[in-house]
Amino acid sequence: MKTIINPNRKIWASILKRPTQNMENIELTVNQIFDDVKRHGDAAIKKYTELFDGASQQCNMVTEEEMELASNLVLEELKRAIKLAKSNIEKFHQAQKTDKLEVETTPGVVCWQEKRPIEKIGLYIPGGTAPLFSTVLMLAIPATIAGCKDIVLCTPPNKEGKVANEILYTAKLCGIDKIYKVGGIQAIAGMTFGTKTMPRIFKIFGPGNQFVTVAKQLATKYGVAIDMPAGPSELLVVADQSAQAAYVASDLLSQAEHGVDSQVVLVSSSEAFIKRVQNEISKQLLDLPRKAIAEKAISNSKFIYMQQETDALDLINAYAPEHLIIATKNNDYFVDNILNAGSVFIGNYTPESAGDYASGTNHTLPTNGFSNVYSGVNLDSFTKSITFQNISKQGLKNIGPAIELMAEAEGLQAHKNAVSIRLKDIS
Ligand SMILES: NC(=O)c1ccc[n+]([C@@H]2O[C@H](COP(=O)([O-])OP(=O)(O)OC[C@H]3O[C@@H](n4cnc5c(N)ncnc54)[C@H](O)[C@@H]3O)[C@@H](O)[C@H]2O)c1
Ligand SMILES: N[C@H](CO)Cc1c[nH]c[nH+]1
Ligand SMILES: [Zn+2]
């Protein structure tokens, strides 16, 4: 683990490049699978499920009996933990509901905006290297609060063609019953085109590996919306001597264990502190069941000494991390000035894992620098705003002449006429 000392701004982009695989190869695979699923529907999905997940299945839908059985197999203690997380996630997302916004812009001209749910949505739950049942909570809860009606869930099966009990239990708890044992690119393609067994949906939500993320991006070319690119997990920690090296190491490892292409970064104004964190990482790694994955991700990670807080802030904003932990003497400076981050965790007692599971915020967040333009999943992700207006006779008298003038100046006579014909009747 090497420390980079006060890197020059010119090399920020190159040192902070994400450890993604060759995207061109992935795009090629994604295009081929999309084409195949578009032409051959379920048969193609079956073929790729066998190829990538090693599962041979006759039916790709989870049955009611499977749901029931799975729910009975989840330990009561874990069920209680899931329910606590559900309650907090519900509270935070319920509070995101906003009232109807109404403004009388000119006397007699009333404009308002109302939110309506997206009708048909698809939730992708990662399951390649770990069955992320917490993601079911993060997607199904806001979808239900927003009022989405047709919800399907896709997740990869294991080699026996089964989905983890915890995913099925959590889905049942959240009222989701249309579950497809399909993952990866083939799941995204299935929801994009629709097949005999899978419906075509309007918007796809959820995180995934690079294959899933590139597939979601391709889905947009076929008229399906997506929440955002939410790929391999990332964490940037900015910490100084006031932080606990062991805590910081545990946070960095928490995101490193997601996958070999995860990226974690430490920025600190103390070289001695960085050294302590690196030593702690080496120690803590030894006990991790996913040691090999975390070790590979750590090898791609960056430890950066930044003498000046102002430079550190600029670097963080340029990197636009998915998660940002702030543990410094001067937390307020970073909190007040951060521009680009998916979700921020403040102080020594706010591990990033809290947001992954149970504090209430959503863990489906933009990666790969996209937090400079995208928000993480929230209640609004599941709705669209419709504007309405109702203009009285007096209202049209008030703004009509301005509309007539503007329409004429744009050379759009029919637009002007639509106002003039009414004004003639009123006056
Ligand atoms: N950004 C976020 O909000 C967020 C949240 C949770 C998890 N994540 C990330 O989600 C990812 C989950 O990844 P995962 O792999 O465990 O599960 P996954 O479900 O995303 O992907 C597994 C699927 O990938 C496909 N696949 C695997 N290798 C392939 C290949 N060579 N060619 C084509 N398809 C292939 C298979 O179909 C497999 O079912 C991790 O990278 C994790 O960091 C991100
Ligand atoms: N850290 C992931 C988001 O990048 C979310 C997650 C789910 N389970 C554990 N972690
Ligand atoms: Zn995580």
Can you tell me about this structure?
This protein is of the alpha/beta class and 427 residues long. The chain folds into three domains: 146 residues, Rossmann fold, CATH 3.40.50.1980; 192 residues, Rossmann fold (3-Layer(aba) Sandwich), CATH 3.40.50; 35 residues, no CATH class. Helices cover 46% and strands 16% of the residues. The chain contains 16 helices and 14 strands. The strands form three sheets. It has a six-stranded parallel beta sheet with strand order 1-11-10-9-12-13, sandwiched between helices. It has a five-stranded parallel beta sheet with strand order 6-5-4-7-8, sandwiched between helices. α13 links the parallel β12 and β13. α4 packs parallel to α5, α9 packs across α10 and α15 packs antiparallel against α16. The longest helix has 31 residues. The radius of gyration is 25 Å and the shape is globular. The chain starts with a strand and ends with a helix. The model has no long low-confidence stretch (mean pLDDT 96). The chain binds nicotinamide-adenine-dinucleotide (NAD), L-histidinol and zinc ion (ZN). The site of nicotinamide-adenine-dinucleotide has 31 residues, from α2, α7 and α8. Nicotinamide-adenine-dinucleotide binds next to α2, α7 and α8. InterPro entries: Ald_DH/histidinol_DH, Histidinol_DH_CS, Histidinol_DH_monofunct, Hstdl_DH. Its cofactor is Zn(2+). Its EC number is 1.1.1.23. This is Histidinol dehydrogenase. It catalyses: L-histidinol + 2 NAD(+) + H2O = L-histidine + 2 NADH + 3 H(+).
